[in-house]
Amino acid sequence: MATSAAARKTPTASTKATPVRAPAKAKRQKDACDLLDADHKAVKALFKDYESLTESRSRSTSKKRQLADQICKELTVHATIEEEIFYPAVRKAIKDNDLMNEATVEHASAKDLIAQIKGMEASDDLFDAKVTVLGEYIDHHVKEERTEMFTKARASKLDLVGLAAQLRQRKDELMAQEEHKVVKPVAELAAAY
Ligand SMILES: [Fe+2]
Ligand SMILES: [Fe+2]
């Protein structure tokens, strides 16, 4: 039997297939390794700035002092959040004590150099060399964190997104404390008069 004209439905606006947009790929939440690596990149940029200052044979020791202090502050806070929060959690999760012990020893060497830089005058002959060597230490340390520690942490069952929130909160607290350290002597001086 021939199909009647009425039965032969002409596609209307409502029956036409509307192109369905593929759901946007869920954006991966930033995890603890992303957060720490952002610190690594920020401090690397500061070391580059310092290198440019030394290459320009700048006599501006105040600019060097300012940059070196900024590097020391960023690294101190970064090492603290790693040691307080990230390293203990990763140590438990990846069960690689050698790797974690090496990283801890590298932190101690970096902290020793940071203390020396803080105690020196920027005009000291060895000041540039100390900052340069600190940058080299950190490059080596970051490479190991990225290629070994972060890879193992991401392959473990660790809640790295939850850990990122803890790291962020502690970093904010420590940064605020560091800022306070800078203004404290001035405040104390004012109170003494
Ligand atoms: Fe580290
Ligand atoms: Fe790190």
Features:
single chain; 193 residues; mainly alpha; Four Helix Bundle (Hemerythrin (Met), subunit A); 5 helices; 74% helix; disordered N terminus; binds fe (ii) ion
Account of the 3D structure:
There is one protein chain. The chain is mainly alpha-helical. It is built from five helices and no strands. The protein is globular. One fe (ii) ion binds near residues 79, 103, 141 and 145.
Corresponding CATH architecture: Up-down Bundle
The CATH topology corresponds to: Four Helix Bundle (Hemerythrin (Met), subunit A)
Q: What form results from the Cα inertia axes?
A: globular
Q: What structural class results from the helix and strand content?
A: mainly alpha
Give the terminus-to-terminus CA distance: 109 Å
Q: What is the CATH domain class?
A: Mainly Alpha
Unreliable segments of 5+ consecutive residues: 1-15, 183-193
Sheet with most strands: none
Strand and helix layout:
Elements: H1 32-55, H2 61-94, H3 97-118, H4 127-155, H5 160-192
What can be said about this structure in brief?
The protein contains five helices and no strands. With about 190 residues, it is mostly helical. It is globular.
